[in-house]
Specification:
Elements (H helix, E strand, L loop, with lengths): L1 E4 L4 H4 L1 E2 L3 H12 L9 H11 L6 H9 L21 H9 L3 H12 L7 H8 L3 H17 L3 H22 L1 H5 L6 E4 L2 E4 L5 E4 L6 E5 L5 E3 L7 E5 L3 H5 L9 H6 L1 H9 L6 H8 L3 H13 L3 E6 L2 E6 L1 H9 L1
Parallel strand pairs: 1-5, 2-6, 6-8
Antiparallel strand pairs: 1-4, 3-4, 7-8, 9-10
Helix pairs in contact: 2-8, 4-7, 4-8, 5-8, 9-14, 13-15, 14-15
């Protein structure tokens, strides 16, 4: 179990970020079946053909070999973000700047719980340009696996941050951690995470970086070389691929039309047009047009939150959905 001790100044110092390179690395583990797919299996089936174009790269094979659920994985593969909107190019620059000695030490620690690698994988791990080769292969994996759907995936992550950061600011640690994962809890000034390793860390005013993810479960980075980071499953990932659409005989759909009824139901919590487009598989323009009608009818309202515009149901919209 990890135990993260929180002090008086850590709430103000804590922040949220998005880690596109972490999503890429975990995605490689999933597509090579080193990590279970879980709720993202529909995504997995969609990207398999594209992944075959890079699957024979020895560096990709080495990266996949090092991905596993039950132990440490080298941190330089996916450095924690230092701000909310860090790009994959910025994260790759941090990876490429990793000293070879540090990278070798992290790889050696990762190999402690793994079998002997194949010769081509061993060649990558022992090469003097190992860091560059891994960074290059992760850049290719990003382009194949994540980048085509990144606007939609990023919208899910951003929506989660809006929700979770709001709870942290308004209610404190206990409410922010509530529902984060069954493996995480708040207990008397300590964040407990049920993971295989044991560690006790005191934040001592440094705060904690919260990073929602699409493809991973709970992951903690408590290494000296990196910011203290807690990565957790973003809310709404499973909903992205689950069945959609109004049911036959739906009274609300008969009143408003199927798409508007689906939109109104999807706004049980505030959402962006990008997320709604992904959730309902409707074009951004179509979502915007329908939201304009719902807004003019007094069923939804909108407000700006940072860079995002959030739509939410009004009290009238709540009554209409509840009645249906």
């Amino acid at each position: 179990m990890y135990r993260i001790k929180v002090g008086p100044g850590d709430l103000a110092a804590s922040r949220f970020g998005i880690a596109p390179l972490f999503e890429t690395v975990i995605a490689v583990g999933i597509v090579t079946e080193r990590i279970p797919a879980g709720p993202v299996r529909p995504w997995l089936e969609r990207v398999r053909p594209a992944f075959r174009t890079i699957a024979d790269d020895p560096a990709v094979r080495a990266l996949a070999f090092l991905m596993h659920e039950r132990g440490y994985v080298a941190d330089f593969f996916s450095p924690p973000p230092t701000r909310p909107n860090q790009t994959v190019a910025e994260q790759l620059a941090v990876t490429r700047a990793t000293p070879l000695e540090q990278a070798r030490a992290e790889i050696a620690r990762t190999l402690e719980t793994l079998p002997e690698p194949e010769p081509d994988v061993r060649d990558v791990l022992e090469s003097p340009d190992m860091v560059r080769r891994f960074a290059d292969c992760m850049e290719r994996a990003w382009a194949v696996l994540i980048e085509p759907e990144w606007p939609v995936l990023r919208s899910i992550l951003e929506q989660d941050i809006l929700y979770r950061a709001g709870r942290l600011a308004a209610y404190g640690w206990a409410q922010a951690l509530d529902g984060l994962s069954r493996k995480v809890r708040w207990r008397d000034g300590v964040i407990e995470a049920d993971l295989r390793d044991d560690a006790v860390v005191e934040l001592d005013g440094a705060g904690l970086m919260f990073v929602p993810t699409i493809f991973s479960e709970i992951t903690v980075t408590l290494e000296r070389n990196w910011p203290y980071t807690l990565m957790y499953p973003a809310r709404g990932v499973a909903a992205l691929w689950e069945g959609r659409g109004s049911q036959e005989g739906d009274a609300l759909a008969r009143l408003l039309g199927h798409t508007r009824a689906d939109l109104l139901r999807a706004l049980a919590e505030p959402a962006t047009t990008t997320w709604l487009s992904a959730r309902l598989r409707v074009s951004l323009g179509g979502v915007g047009d329908h939201l304009a009608v719902l807004r003019a009818s007094g069923l939804v309202t909108r407000e700006r939150s940072g860079r995002s515009v959030l739509y939410r149901r009004t009290a009238v919209g709540d009554v209409l959905v509840g009645a249906s």
